[in-house]
Amino acid sequence: MTTPQADAEERAMRRALELAASVGPQVLPNPRVGCVLLAPDGSGVAEAAHRGAGTPHAEAAALALAGTAARDATAIVTLEPCNHTGRTGPCAQALLDAGVRRVVFAQDDPNPQAAGGGETLRAGGVEVASGLLADEARALNPAWSRAMELGRPFVTWKLATTLDGRSAAADGTSRWVSSLAARRDTHRLRALSDTMLVGTGTVIEDDPRLTVRAADEAPLERQPLRVVMGERDLDPGRRIFDEAVVGGSLHLRTRDPRAALAALWERERRHVFLEGGPTLAAAFLRAGLVDEVVAYVAPMLLGDGRAAVGELGIESIAAALHLDVTDVRVLEPAAPGEDTNLRITMRGTA
Ligand code: AOF
Ligand code: ZN
């Protein structure tokens, strides 16, 4: 049974979700969060979204806009108000200080350092309800949410192959097996991450830029950190190290995926987009550190050439790695003469 109050709160939560999404694809290392303050009669008092690390949290921004009108208000937030002093102060305390009467939040905070705001509010005499549109709220920050639970960056492995699982011809000529539409789609996904990761082999052979570019090839304003891992020395003139590109780059001198992810976590990296060659992909798969797989498949046969993934130590069909498909998309050609490609998204094996 719904009541006018429940209806108003759900409408406000939908608005808070919309505000959070309006800031752009991601604001990693922080989550996207929205907040709406409602007066006791259900009318809107103030609303705000969080815009990225170091800027006010959504609740703090909405409280600042509301001023004394926050007294006796209901705060509708997409994420549990934080309970910690990080780059900014604790929102649970700010809501108490402002005299908010009721707090409705969607997703429990999966960040162990910040969680507990709900309890603090309750202990301070505020009415607290949680779980309203929680799935929608988690979908604002899927990789961030999982990363906070795991205590390591979320890993998306992207591969682009021919129908026979090749990513380059035997003579190395084919820099791209995937279509222009597939490459553009890849850039859209790169923009959701905060870290591009390849192995030394890829830097030596392909010299990739690893930047995120728009359809007209112009680099976006926000760029992920470009990381190469492996023990081999690299020529500092390789394009990944281009200092003119924002976002920065890094050579992690390890071949161990777990050590690389730990080092990236320390640097507050939350979502790694793995585009490395077959050796790196195999290392992550063997370590059980792939959370999501995005495969672009071109209707093309090479019969020979570089495989998308290296040795996995699988000796019989019974030991095969099975992935769950979550989405399949047909990517129509973006230009004449291009192939139609498929994009298959799967849950990883982590
Ligand atoms: C945000 N924005 O609107 C809310 C957050 O160290 P800080 O200050 O950047 O705090 C980040 C944590 O605060 C974040 O991981 C999450 O657990 C909590 N809530 N964070 O960036 C917000 N409400
Ligand atoms: Zn906060």
Q: What keyword list fits this structure?
A:
single chain; 350 residues; alpha/beta; Cytidine Deaminase, domain 2; Dihydrofolate Reductase, subunit A; eight-stranded mixed beta sheet; five-stranded mixed beta sheet; 27% helix; elongated; binds ligand AOF; binds zinc ion
Textual characterization of the structure:
This protein has 350 residues and is α/β, with parallel strands linked by helices. It folds into two domains: 4-140, 3-Layer(aba) Sandwich (Cytidine Deaminase, domain 2); 152-347, Dihydrofolate Reductase, subunit A (3-Layer(aba) Sandwich). Helices cover 27% and strands 23% of the residues. It is built from ten helices and 15 strands. A hairpin with a 5-residue loop joins β1 and β2. α3 runs parallel beside α4 (117-123). It is elongated, with a radius of gyration of 23 Å. The model has no long low-confidence stretch (mean pLDDT 96). Bound molecules: ligand AOF and zinc ion.
What's the layout of helices and strands?
Blueprint: H1 4-21, E1 34-38, E2 44-49, H2 58-66, E3 74-79, H3 91-97, E4 102-107, H4 117-123, E5 127-130, H5 134-140, H6 142-150, E6 154-162, E7 166-168, H7 180-190, E8 195-199, H8 200-206, E9 225-229, E10 249-252, H9 257-266, E11 271-274, H10 278-286, E12 292-298, E13 306-307, E14 324-331, E15 341-347
Parallel strand pairs: 3-4, 4-5, 6-11, 6-12, 8-9, 8-11, 9-10
Antiparallel strand pairs: 1-2, 1-3, 7-13, 12-15, 14-15
Helix pairs in contact: 3-4
